[in-house]
Amino acid sequence: SGIDFEIIIIDDGSPDGTQEIAEQLEKIYGSDRILLRPRPRKLGLGTAYIHGMKHATGNFIVIMDADLSHHPKFIPEFIRKQQEGDFDIVSGTRYKGSGGVYGWDLKRKLISRGANFITQVLLRPGASDLTGSFRLYRKEVLQKLMEKCVSKGYVFQMEMIVRARQLGYTIGEVPISFVDRVYGESKLGGNEIVSFLKGLLTLFATT
To answer: Which GO terms describe its molecular function (predicted)?
Structure first.
């Protein structure tokens, strides 16, 4: 690609064997390219971002899931989009253009669509996919947003975009295909859904 990069893997007790695979990759590609930074238990997406940022040396940070639900083939498109518009954030969207979701049952699709719809109605964030986590950030912008965001869990992604709009940061979008994981288990459950709704109402009340 001609772009200097490093891959920082934050594993927080995931049930799908992420850490073991990352250790193998570290041996193959070297610890200068693959940086494994595990944590003993699930502590939330927000703290994972902060943990990862401490070790990031580049000017831009791409956040993505490590189970290949987010395909690396889209990363060059994110970079091109950022360069074209000099965006502060480039967000992958499943709900615009050629974007889509594959492998989810109807219940999971309804939860995602419903969460996105409610968020659009209440917060009007100006971006089409609020609950996705495949994004490119300018490093200093990510740091500023982390200082502002207070949410944990899945509502955190939504707050990042809402706060970015409040602070006047520019956001570009790239349509992506999200494919449900083939191996392992999803950690989305009833508790996360309840937390999401509580977080959404809190964000509505404070923005």
So the answer is: dolichyl-phosphate beta-D-mannosyltransferase activity; metal ion binding
**Is residue 46 within a helix (H) or strand (E), and if so which, with residue range?**
helix 45-53
Cβ proximity of 150 and 203 under 8 Å: no
Six-digit token string for 97: 């253009």
* Tens-place pLDDT, residues 53-89: 888 999 999 999 877 889 999 999 999 999 999 999 9
Q: How far from the centroid of its chain's Cα atoms is residue 31's Cα?
A: 23
Same domain, 83 and 16: no
Q: What is the mean pLDDT of each run of 10 residues along the chain (207 residues)?
A: 87 81 92 87 77 91 88 95 97 91 82 79 82 93 90 79 92 92 53 72 74
Quick one: 36 and 51 in the same domain? yes
pTM of the model: 0.84
Number of domains forming the structure of the chain: 2
Same domain, 105 and 157: yes
Choose the final residue of a domain: 27, 42, 58. 58
